[in-house]
Design goal:
By secondary structure, this protein is an alpha+beta fold. Helices cover about 50% and strands about 20% of the residues. It is built from four helices and four strands. Helix 1 packs antiparallel against helix 4.
Amino acid sequence: MTPDEMADRLEDAADNLGDAIARRVVHTAELGRGMIRANATGRPGPNVITGKYRSSWEVVGRAIPHGAQCTIGTNAPQGRRLEYGFWDMTDSIGRHFYQPPYPHVGPAVPRMEAVLHEQILGAVEEVLG
């Protein structure tokens, strides 16, 4: 392979890398949402009562130069309370509460990081062939 051929190949790879990364970032976010939902299906995560909380998790993605950005989250008001719990809380009318944490997002993060790492390597291999 000549230097000019190598330069053309690298230029083509650079042109295609952003799309490959974007596809794989969105794929990883969808897998992450699935992991969070699976963790929110009983202990040690929260128990399922109606399934409404579990189904409230969404992936929002947007394109950025040379890739994508995804956010996985919920607008459900109990999300933070279930993940982190709260300790020794008294409300305005004197009721005392203790809610242990039922982590379901935190345990999924290391697995999502590993998947994302594999996906980014796959994107580079895809474009470099």
